[in-house]
Write a structure and sequence with these properties.
By secondary structure, this protein is an all-alpha fold. The chain has 21 helices and two strands. The protein has a two-stranded antiparallel sheet. The model is unreliable at 243-248 (pLDDT under 50).
Length: 449
């Protein structure tokens, strides 16, 4: 680009080369972990004993496996190779996602979901750590926003594609005529949902092995001058941090009160997010008696709005260099909206508005939130803390669906579960505001000294 600096050219090339790769990978990853919410609409008809409690537990047990390997996976990205580790993750999770098509009993479902969590562990925090190897803080929230937007794109594109697959082996009435869609190779539609989305993961895993680059100095697609300029910018940012940050051990970072508070925030917001996300199709079907096609059309709306919210939060957070309010405000707004959702029955437009605000809040804060750990941690300490925050936080991915499914099974209503999710969101917002106060106090003391 004539007229731009060497560093700016390197930044632009890094965006164009790396962000699309991790974006596409996360699209497929998110579908693989969440397509159970669509598949369950017919799985429960074909598999005896599969009720909301089973699906809630099965959807959540994924995150128990995820929890175990998050920190080791993040450290491997920092110390070994992001390219090789992320490639390995995608191949194994694609194979296990496809294996979900073979389950017959709740216990088999739980085992496959747990193993899928183990297989995917390290991908999400690994990419976050990986992006710190390429983007300085002034670019990081925007790069993260593009990465996180993949989850919304996955939820926008996959429901309709999955609904087409779901028709395999089922019957439906079209213009008053009963139409039967034959099975393919003896498998029904919900089984093909898992298989069809598992295959791209394996293919992408191989592609990433050849297309990703671990560090700027290894990038043959940058000139020597661009490599040096980008490495220098990253090194200058690391050097500008206080000396104690450079000597912080991984263990000390993992026990840092600020890291633990961030883990609590992410746990609560993730509980709220996945509780809504996994049960939104079932809620709409239960409250309004919709068919599967209508449900898969409506759940695209919140994801579309969320996409723009995340991009705005990432852009504005970088523009203003503010992270705390950009994290707390969406979560609190989402919690307030969801608290009204049980009162919206019979008014579909109002229900959709509240669900949209809820989901936009529960995930819209993420570009700003994931820019916070690198404010006070570096290198292995930052990688370990990001792994801890994500692993503890994603236990909320178990708790949210489990509480929603169990409460509905026992009470016949989703209201109690929704109020629990709102409480979690409120807790996350309050903790974040407390952290903002502590951060401002520390800055004031540093200036005074």
């Amino acid at each position: 680009m004539p007229g731009t600096s060497v560093l700016d050219r390197a930044r632009l090339k890094a965006y164009k080369r790396l962000v699309p790769l991790v974006f596409i990978s996360y699209v497929v990853a998110y579908v693989d972990r969440s397509n159970v919410s669509i598949a369950k609409l017919t799985m429960e008809q074909d598999l005896p004993g599969f009720d909301n409690h089973v699906f809630g537990f099965g959807a959540g047990v994924f995150f128990l496996g995820y929890f175990l390997l998050e920190i080791p996976g993040s450290l491997l990205v920092e110390k070994w190779s992001a390219r090789k580790w992320i490639s390995r993750i995608m191949v194994t999770w694609g194979l296990l996602a496809a294996c979900t098509a073979l389950v017959k009993t709740p216990n088999q479902f739980y085992i496959v979901r747990f193993l899928l969590g183990l297989a995917e562990a390290g991908f999400f925090p690994g990419v976050i750590v990986y992006l710190t190897h390429w983007f300085t803080s002034r670019d990081r929230a925007r790069a993260l926003a593009y990465f996180f937007a993949a989850a919304s794109i996955a939820q926008i594109t996959s429901p309709k594609l999955s609904n087409l697959l779901m028709k395999i082996g089922t019957s439906e009435t079209i213009n008053g005529v009963l139409v039967t869609h034959p099975m393919i190779w003896g498998l029904k539609g919900w089984q093909w949902v898992y298989i069809a989305w598992g295959i791209p993961s394996v293919v992408l895993g191989v592609v990433l092995l050849f297309m990703l680059t671990d560090r700027p100095r290894e990038a043959k697609w940058l000139t020597k001058e661009e490599q040096e300029a980008l490495e220098l910018a990253l090194e200058e940012e690391r050097a500008a941090r206080p000396a104690h940050m450079h000597h912080m051990s991984v263990w000390k970072a993992l026990t840092n009160p600020r890291v633990l508070m961030l883990a609590a925030v992410y746990f609560c917001s993730t509980t709220a997010n996945y509780g809504v996300e996994f049960f939104m199709p079932t809620i709409l079907q239960a409250w309004y008696g919709m068919n599967r096609g209508t449900v898969t059309s409506l759940i695209i709306i919140p994801q579309t709005v969320l996409l723009f919210v995340q991009l705005f939060v990432g852009w504005n957070s970088d523009r203003t260099r503010e992270r705390w309010w950009h994290t707390a405000t969406p979560i609190l707004v989402g919690g307030a909206a969801m608290a009204l959702a049980p009162w919206s029955g019979g008014q579909l437009w109002f229900t959709m508005l509240l669900l949209t605000l809820g989901m936009s809040g529960f995930r819209g804060h993420m570009p700003a939130f994931w820019s916070l750990p690198s404010l006070f941690l570096t290198e292995a300490a930052a990688a370990g803390s990001i792994g801890l925050i994500n692993s503890v936080g994603n236990l909320g991915g178990f708790l949210g669906p489990y509480v929603m499914g169990t409460v509905q099974t026992k009470t016949g209503s989703f209201a109690g579960g929704i109020y629990f999710l709102c409480f979690c969101a409120g807790t996350a917002g309050v903790i974040m505001l407390i952290m903002r106060h502590l951060h401002r106090r520390d800055l004031a003391r540093a200036r005074a000294s």
